[in-house]
Amino acid sequence: MQPLKYLAGYSSEIQAQVQDLLAQDKLGQFLLKRHPQIHDVRTDKALYDYTIEIKNQYLRKSQPLSKVIFDDKISLSHQALGLHSYVARKQGAKIKAKNEIRISSRLKRVPEGLLRMVVVHELAHLKEKDHNKAFYQLCCHMDGDYHQLEFELRLLLTLIDAGKNPYN
Fold first, then answer.
1. Which of 59, 102, 105, 124 is the most interior residue, by most CB within 10 Å?
2. Cα separations (Å) of 85 from 38, 49, 62, 82, 147?
3. Which residues does 44 contact at the CB level (< 8 Å), separation at least 6?
């Protein structure tokens, strides 16, 4: 049995259940039952609009976003599917700061809930820079299923590593 790198922080019981589902070729069926369709957010503009809608609902008073894009360069070697950056640029005597969110292009063909989980995660960094208790409370405030969706995204990544993406 191969180690489950995306589930390393989970109990051995959960890892064993996932290994069993993988061995029986049922993990894809489980995910398809939970999330039968992929989202229709395909362009950077659609992603920006999608993200701003969530931001305006929960973080109206937070700093503005200057850019939200799908990024081909973000890979799992970064241990990330999304990146929030605070970019400061000097223009003459002034410093202009911009918040940018980049979402891995690998998330163009996943269920909407899994995309939302990553967007919520990156939006939470507008208020909380570190992954602390307040950060995860904010994520759960924006999406009550945050932890379940994160787990299911880890299941999908495990399945993709095994060469069995149910959404292709």
1. 124
2. 27, 18, 15, 10, 23
3. 68, 69, 70
Q: Cβ atoms within 10 A of the Cβ of 112, count?
A: 14
Query: 117, 106 in Cβ contact below 8 A?
Result: no
Q: How does pLDDT run across 9-25, given as a tens digit for each residue?
A: 999 999 999 999 999 99
Whether the per-residue pLDDT at 71 is higher than 60: the answer is yes
Whether the Cβ atoms of residue 150 and residue 124 lie closer than 8 Å to each other: no
Q: How far is CA 114 from CA 25, 90, 137, 143, 160, in A?
A: 21, 36, 18, 11, 14
Q: What is the pTM of this model?
A: 0.90
How is 78-117 classified by DSSP, letter by letter? GT-SEEEEEEEEEETTEEEEEEEEEEEGGGGGS-HHHHHH
Label the pairing between strands 94-104 and 82-91.
Answer: antiparallel
pLDDT attached to residue 3: 76
